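Before a colleague's protein record goes any further, I have to sign it off. Would you go through it and say whether the fold makes sense for this chain? Take the sequence as given and treat only the tokens as open to question. The record follows directly below this note.
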Amino acid sequence: MKLGWLDVAKRLTQGSTADEPPFEASEEGYRRWLKHHIARRLKVDPSTIDEDAPFSEFGLDSRTAVQLSGELEKRVGARLSPALLLEHETIREVALALVASE
């Protein structure tokens, strides 16, 4: 079952996320990285994060979105727009944009 923000909010104090997965520069790798980091911030299992849900459903504000973009930029090793997660509404859209920009 995939969780939206309302479901996630109920689970913020439950469980912990798994260790960070290895990073790979691919659509799947970007999706996995984003799911892991969003899940870590929400304190839920990454498998509960819906890749097609808008970031707003996870309670990501503009500050958090810019922070995640910065963290991803370090992983990718290339300059990314600080507004990357604001310009694209879902994990899948961000991953596809990153692959298209390579």
Summary: Residues 66 and 82 are 5 Å apart (CA to CA). The two ends are 32 Å apart (CA to CA). The chain has one domain: 5-101. The chain is about 50% helix and 0% strand.
